[in-house]
Amino acid sequence: MELTTEHLTTSGWLWFCGALVVVHVDASSSDGRLGMWESIEPQGTALPLHAHHREDEQAVVLEGSVTSWVGDRVHHLCAGDTVALPRGVPHAHRVTSPRARILTVASPGGFERLFTELGVPATPDTPPPPWPDVAARMELLAQLGVEGVGPPPAWTEATPRAA
Predict the structure, then answer these.
(1) Is the pTM of this model over 0.90?
(2) Pick the CATH number of 14-146 from 3.40.640.10, 3.50.50.60, 2.60.120.10, 3.40.50.1820
């Protein structure tokens, strides 16, 4: 499912890798203590398995359904559910509903730079632009202390065998 911007009611929304993201709090406005952003992600959005080495994150599903992998645990989340993403622990997620809205808080702040530096402003009726350059994403992620661990788990899980 492709997202549209026709119902955006506030400014500041950005396109980032096929998702809409708005940063509500950045490190500069919180004395470095936290960053908070909201994302609207289409079905099938799958973050690669990765680990943050500078911040802890807490994600709240506001709408939709998301499967989240944190370390060796799998969480099936729906609206109102939250998941802790501790620093240093590999994690990923996959949107399993037609779309999901997720609110994420990171402490300390700074990771939200990924969106503000590489995102493209979203205005009503604009389609998603091409994704940011892979090299630019990888370079900024490394600067932000994020380590890529592997592809999204849903893409590498073994299919259950018939008994």
Answers:
(1) no
(2) 2.60.120.10
